[in-house]
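User: Design a sequence. Structure:
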């Protein structure tokens, strides 16, 4: 299977938090301050004063090789969540597909005159939709795991203008995000954002997004861009809360790994949204 390089694949997985901050605290009060994080460059959380970093404080630092297993786990978990989301929740955003499935159900009754088969048709259609969602998304995951996510240091840590961060809470990695600089238009792309499902609702996704914005400003990029196929509206609200504006949308997006066969086109459709946050004029 041929997989495009990350520079050609503008796909960002974002798992949005339902709340902006940890309940019972001031907004982002448990996120280590930006100035503290940027001016220090320790190789591990122990390099910071342990008295300053509380047990329940989210600490965002650059990726290290020892993070590999946890980073892959969080990334894979986030991608796998997209299977039911795309198959079922995503159908709500596709009125043309709903109409087509309704027509197929009616045609089944007209052709077979079987009430039982007609009753089963919607379930068969949804089962087939789940099958193709799983097939496509597993292909996309395999593609990612054999490109940039197979060599995070090579794709994000070594190139100038790119970086990869992890969010650490209570000594464990709970979130990830990447920034990939693009010299052709002086923008940086926010990529691969995901938060461990057990630690959502703590403002971690927003803190990771802000880290990318800080990075872009400090490196004099003119804008931050991202592309997403997220179905949940919470993800889109997260981007908007960070200042992003939607600049484009495609109803028939092709994920890396898709074969574009007739069956895939019938049972897997996904909406792709592009966002942009302009930092300064060129």
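Assistant: Done.
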């Amino acid at each position: 299977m041929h997989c495009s390089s990350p520079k050609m694949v503008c796909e960002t997985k974002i798992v949005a938090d339902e709340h902006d901050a940890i309940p019972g605290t001031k907004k982002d009060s448990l996120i280590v301050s930006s100035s503290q994080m940027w001016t220090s460059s320790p190789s591990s959380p122990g390099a910071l004063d342990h008295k300053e970093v509380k047990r329940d404080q989210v600490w965002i630092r650059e990726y290290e090789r020892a993070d590999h297993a946890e980073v892959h786990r969080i990334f894979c978990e986030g991608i796998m969540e997209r299977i039911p989301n795309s198959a079922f929740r995503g159908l709500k955003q596709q009125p043309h597909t709903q109409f087509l499935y309704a027509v197929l159900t009616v045609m089944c009754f007209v052709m077979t005159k079987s009430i039982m088969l007609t009753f089963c048709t919607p379930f068969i259609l949804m089962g087939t939709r789940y099958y193709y969602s799983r097939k496509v998304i597993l292909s996309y995951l395999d593609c990612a795991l054999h490109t940039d996510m197979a060599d995070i240091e090579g794709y994000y840590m070594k190139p100038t203008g790119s970086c990869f961060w992890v969010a650490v809470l209570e000594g464990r990695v709970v979130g990830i995000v990447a920034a990939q600089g693009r010299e052709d238009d002086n923008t940086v792309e926010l990529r691969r954002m995901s938060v461990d499902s057990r630690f959502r609702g703590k403002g971690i996704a927003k803190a990771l997004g802000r880290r990318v914005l800080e990075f872009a400003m400090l490196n004099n990029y003119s804008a931050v861009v991202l592309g997403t196929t997220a179905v949940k509206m919470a993800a889109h609200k997260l981007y908007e809360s960070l200042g992003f504006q939607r600049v484009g949308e495609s109803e028939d997006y092709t994920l890396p790994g898709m074969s574009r066969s007739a069956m895939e086109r019938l049972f897997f459709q996904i909406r792709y949204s592009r966002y942009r946050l302009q930092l300064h004029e060129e």
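The two ends are 39 Å apart (CA to CA). The first strand starts at residue 59 and ends at 62.
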